[in-house]
Amino acid sequence: MSEDQAESSATVGDPSKTKRVDVPHFYASSFITHVTSDVTIIFQSPTLVTFPSNSGAPIETLASTSVGAVSMSIQAAKDLAKLLENNVKAYEDMFGEVTTPWMELQKKQAEGNDS
């Protein structure tokens, strides 16, 4: 491991060595992707939407609001996927497996296709 790699891996997770980057920051709880010759990821956050109803009680539902987008080459997307995979694995090694509703749906669909 080179000296640069050693220093880089030593600062991972150390907030005291993190520099603030002056770029827009947003929280997204979901995303959609679109792939052509590049990959575009549109990040979304839930928004509570209220509709009037005939009964007098408003109807509330969650809708997704797009909060940001990023486009990148397919090569960069593959690198990003690997980096995210490594980070999630490190998190799961410390705190246990992470599951999501989407992962559960994928699992049920795969089980349904196997039978």
Task: Name a few traits of the molecule.
three-stranded antiparallel sheet; disordered N terminus; 115 residues; alpha+beta; extended
Please provide a written account of the structure.
There is one protein chain. The chain has a 3-stranded antiparallel beta sheet. With about 120 residues, it is of the alpha+beta class. β2 and β3 form a beta hairpin. About 40% of the residues lie in helices and about 30% in strands.
Write a brief structural summary.
This protein is of the alpha+beta class.
Q: Calculate Rg over CA atoms.
A: 20 Å
Percent range for helical residues?
Answer: 25-40%
Topology pattern, helix = H, strand = E: HEEEHH
Please state how the strands of the largest beta sheet are arranged side by side.
Answer: 1-2-3
What's the assembly state of these chains?
A: single chain
* Overall pLDDT: 83
Compute the number of helices. 3
Principal-axis shape equals extended
